[in-house]
Protein: Beta sliding clamp
Amino acid sequence: MIHFSINKAIFIQALNTTKRAISHKNAIPVLSTIKIEVNNEGIGLTGSNGQISIEHFISVQDDNAGLLISSTGSILLEASFFINVVSSLPDIVLDLKEIEQKQVLLTSGKSEITLKGKEAELYPRLQEVVKTKPLLLETKLLKDIINETAFAASTQESRPILTGVHFVLTDNQTLKTVATDSHRMSQRKIQLAKDGDNFDVVIPSRSLREFAAVFSDEIETVEVFFSNNQMLFRSQHISFYTRLLEGTYPDTDRLIPTTFNTTVTFDTANLRHAMERARLLSNATQNGTVKLEIQKGIVSAHVHSPEVGKVNEELDILAVDGEDLIISFNPTYLIDALKAVGNEQVKISFISPIRPFTLVPNAEGEDFIQLITPVRTN
Amino acid sequence: MIHFSINKAIFIQALNTTKRAISHKNAIPVLSTIKIEVNNEGIGLTGSNGQISIEHFISVQDDNAGLLISSTGSILLEASFFINVVSSLPDIVLDLKEIEQKQVLLTSGKSEITLKGKEAELYPRLQEVVKTKPLLLETKLLKDIINETAFAASTQESRPILTGVHFVLTDNQTLKTVATDSHRMSQRKIQLAKDGDNFDVVIPSRSLREFAAVFSDEIETVEVFFSNNQMLFRSQHISFYTRLLEGTYPDTDRLIPTTFNTTVTFDTANLRHAMERARLLSNATQNGTVKLEIQKGIVSAHVHSPEVGKVNEELDILAVDGEDLIISFNPTYLIDALKAVGNEQVKISFISPIRPFTLVPNAEGEDFIQLITPVRTN
Structure:
């Protein structure tokens, strides 16, 4: 029968991290609970939505937590409700004691709150990843890669494999990550500082976004483990499991063009703001596109909505090279692509009005390329 | 045909204030537009939802606005869309010029955006308040009164008059404001610094909340004007019109008890937090109540939800006086009441378990009283 006392703020922080995996309206009712497991080393908190599982461990060694364990055990408590109750407690310390019939008594200051829980045995077994030979990754690097690619994954379930990001390690050191929804594509390559076993997996983009939210920048590195259909990101206190997508990711290498007819260099922020203006009006047009005109060294953007009005704008450019061109595309794809570019300058290269164009940061050494498919307007 | 240039930030600020009156989904389509009227003195912006109307005036005298008027006129523009477009413009200055067929050309930096508008004559005539003999009120005082009363008004349309706040001026100086939804009541009285004509009106609580959002604390005083079914709050730049509620407000004076059997003084914040804890569990009970027990100088709160759990808590009190008592009520009403009390201490006085109890700030000279009706639990 569980009995421990703990610093309230530390406990709430750990509960909130774990809760990120918990969906309030899960088809499996027991997954709306949080699992609390207390042993002599500390407290393990587990939350899951069946796709993602998060385990957060609070150690008795952690001085900030002020964790005193009098008795061990495990129990399930309704996650949202439990966190609300803990957050409302008056004192900076709380005491949690399991009493009869899977009930817990929370004591803090003069407040005594009894909550009904469930048998821990009702919780499903979710994680099956063998923890040997981890790949070591910098958290910040991994979060940058996620920001640069995950947005380009599909949000539609018609081709489930495209809702993920393709992570491939070759030569034990070259990591390639790609996402595409078939209208645009984003690919990032990096050389890892440390060798690892080669792998080829497709990680749900939703899981990657949760990863970025769960692992704060203070956590410098994570260990990465793979199994057949799951992977695990692990830091000192947090284990983040996600299912992998099954199936073969399409060959995207052959999509990337290498020769171009027109190249323009823009200030990234300026171009983004111009596209945001254009989008206000293109949203009210039939095909939702903006027209880019490159003529005699002048680059301009145009939208004409018969109902709402029109935009005509000469764009600030840093350099232009090659043939004149008129091309139409969905400005949202370009805005998303520009948001992913960390560099202040971006180079956009075109082949023709009907072939995808590429975006790369205008900087040496960054192996980051994006592709956007234009829209034929006549 | 309108033509002016203006500082973008000042223009957006005025547009956003005016937009507060505009409902996106109005049954009268023309009310989703903003009316722009330009004369030689400045620009008038008008927005309305039929209940509330806001006019914001930007003067050519206002140096910050940098307003240069080349040509006067008036037009209607789709409010949300127009504000989004103006906000997206690249330069700190924008030029707005009416061109043929009720279209306006916005120019800012190298960006040119044309928007379709409508004839100003299509806009309904909404405001009819004769602007003579204003009552002068401090904005901060009026906002305090609103915070202290408007929350207690009804949100249900079954008795429309109760959705308003009753404002009565007697003896040219005594202002009484009351709101009630028949479960709780809040009454604030003040002596005005300056005399005014007596009045007796019921102002929609929703209008009062908008008033508090529109008039910033920098606006020290407002002039108040009344007509039959409308009133106007006016500052130097903003005219805020609201319809009044028709009908007779119930006599609330007779509801306020004067003799009590039990009185307890609490720390306002402590009691509020205890009630917030209690509410987490009372929400899961059948009648949604918390039970307060006053016995032998000890005050405690109790909730028992057979499904979720229970709360038992001894409350910190500053003083207790009179007979022992057990009383049940909806904690939300007490939480709302405590939020409205600016004072650090609050005095709660009871007659019996079935009679309304009163809350007053535990301070001299504040004429602020609230009433909450208990719930019979057996």
Remarks:
- DSSP finds six helices and 26 strands in chain A.
- The longest strand of chain A covers residues 52-59.
